[in-house]
Input
Amino acid sequence: MSRIHVTTTINGEETDFLCEPQQTLLDVLRDDLDMTGSKEGCGSGDCGACSVILDGRLVCSCLVLAPEAEGRSVETIEGMAEGDKLHPLQQKFLEMAALQCGVCTPGILVAAKNLLERNPDPTEEEVRYWLAGNLCRCTGYDKIIRAVMETAADLRGAA
Output
């Protein structure tokens, strides 16, 4: 089977790669592009550990075929920090201990970032709804929800 040439933008940088037609975006990110932040938790789109933003829309990269990224914009957990400066969500997760083993954390952070870009003043119910597709087996979610809510408040105060 012939490989497909894909040109896409990943975290603001134009990127080219070759992939098999059946390869997932997650597999290409992790195995070919060495972007191992997104995790494979389930491989069926149920856990959210592989969440990325594709053209502004939150998706599970295990459900997106890599060739579908052609000409599109992909944002991963690796693109959240700016140089050595953590994204405010990342900083707040650290400050509030809103993570444990770290498998789900990248997907949750990407999902939370996407939410705050769409809605800078979410209610707790909206945060819980938006993050419902991200499963965490280690925490009780409360610290995660509080960290997202506090980040939203901090970002609004800084604007």
